[in-house]
TrEMBL record:
This is CCR4-NOT transcription complex subunit 1 CAF1-binding domain-containing protein. Pfam families: CNOT1_CAF1_bind. Residues 3-112 form the CCR4-NOT transcription complex subunit 1 CAF1-binding domain. It comes from the Eukaryota. InterPro entries: CNOT1_CAF1_bind.
Amino acid sequence: MANLGDLLGKLLALVDHHAAAPFTSRLPGMLETACRDGHLLTLLPVVCGILRQLSASGVEGDGDVQTALSMLKDIGDLPNIRLQLQFNVVRLFKELQLDIDSLQTTGRVSTTAMAASEVQEQS
């Protein structure tokens, strides 16, 4: 899945910022849905690959990309997160040379993850 994210990121980097904006604006919603539905293991490597390639090509993030990065910080801080996912998040921030502690939390992930766990407990 990470290779798919790298490929999508390279394709988005080839187009101009305005053409990539509709896709990058969906990244936060995709992360939120993956948290809620339990598909983070599938989606998180794709999102990390996309962000890695966009950064490598010099496409600077807009507000949606910054929100996605903040949500990745939230995901990495979840108490029961798989080590593989946490490693993907930490590696992305190191490759982007970003201080993970400098980002603000969104609160969107923790409330979504709590809602998903409540649904699983009721079943």
